[in-house]
Amino acid sequence: MMMALGRYALLILVLAQVSVQEDVFDLSDTTLPHQDFIATGYVPRRGLKQASLTLGIGSGFTYNVRAGSDALPVFNRAIAALKAAGGGTLTVGKGTFILGGPLVWTASKSALVGAGMGLTILKLKDKAPTFKSAGFLRAIGVNDVTVSDITLDGNKGKQVNKDKEAYGRYGIFMANYKNWKFQRVEVQNFQRYGFDPHGIKKSTNPNSKANVWSFGLTVLDCLSHDNNWDGYTFDQTYNVYAARNKSYKNGRYGFNIVTASRNVFIEKNEATDNGFGAKTPTYLFDGGDGCGYVADTNKPGFDTYNVTFQDNIATNSFRAGFCVKDSGRITINRNNITKGGACANWKRLRANVRFTNNKCTGTTKQFTISGTLGTAPFLSGNTFA
Length: 385
Fold this sequence. Notes:
Elements: H1 5-8, E1 51-57, E2 63-65, H2 72-84, E3 88-92, E4 95-99, E5 103-104, E6 110-113, E7 120-124, E8 137-140, E9 143-153, H3 163-166, E10 172-175, E11 178-188, E12 214-220, E13 223-225, E14 232-235, E15 237-243, E16 246-248, E17 255-258, E18 262-267, E19 270-272, E20 291-296, E21 305-310, E22 313-315, E23 320-325, E24 330-333, E25 336-338, E26 342-347, E27 353-356, E28 359-361, E29 365-369, E30 378-380, E31 383-384
């Protein structure tokens, strides 16, 4: 069982010790990595010589941006300097920074720190070129990073609104990562996902070493809204902790735990007015159930499990406040669900789905089933009005 966030800060980072020697590995081992780990992100260490850089509009910073110009080349130079120094902190001043394309973060043991959500804004330029890879903020194989106090704006109203041009327009995309932390980060107005951290799936065989899991993600006090698809998607990642975040007016899901994500604890979040993208043609919507919170296996053999949703709020979700699809070992406890299609939607459930002590008010239905139910969920202590 997850402990209070404060106690996690005392835990030792163990993920770096995990290694696999065989060509395939046992995905049923829920003790690998340790379930009680929480990602701390970048923590400066005494005795390490790391960079402390500043970037801002005007003069007086380590890296200066001319007002109205494309800030991406300046950011790229700053990130390269962080990487060359072995890590450190890039502090970005107040203002709106226009970027001509994706910001690729290559520096491990580093932090990107703004002046606050709505104060430091990284905004995609009007009619930006098609992304070659996913992510406005993008990182592959980068570890020990903190991002805080910043807004990422996809500027979707000023982009070409076609499927090809919208490819990869995700606010945040990382893959093959370890130990990332986001705090007070706002992601808004993207043509696809808001947050979308990932593993790497190169084989349809879930046991193949060609597939790479990510380890350790903490998301606190963040906002994700007005994105055409999901607010937060946590994909193929072990050990996720998300608390006190808000997700609203996203086209498909508020919070989507999917494709072999495991040891996930989602608490004290708010999901509001999510899942109406199918009714909005400009969202280029690809389908989906329209849920506040969802646990979904999505790909055969890539089982999502050991997921807990606790003390969250789901308001006016198109299909249901909570949805579980093709997954087991899912706990939905002490949540408050109001308005919308249903309290919960079930689809081909596996063993040990628990829906307990939830309060459901004003939804059209208590429970709905998409296709077949599967294994009946355990229900206890819920109230409906």
